[in-house]
Design goal:
This protein has 5 helices and 3 strands, in the order βααββααα. By secondary structure, it is of the alpha+beta class. A 3-stranded antiparallel sheet has the order 1-3-2.
Amino acid sequence: MEKLIFTKIQLLEELDVAENTLRALIEQRGFPHPRKMGAKLFWLVEEVAEWLQGCPRAWGGAEEGKLSAAIQVT
């Protein structure tokens, strides 16, 4: 079964960025906003993958990293 969502902790680990960097990506670079379920935040894996594919120069290595193993985008 494919992974459908990232929690904040999972996303930070997958992207290998700090929370402040994630916040800046959302505010300044069009990174997908989190969804909310109760008090928990999560990101849809498909939206993150689409964003990464749209900026290959900035995150080119991510496609060969752990993120590509978690995402099966066709």
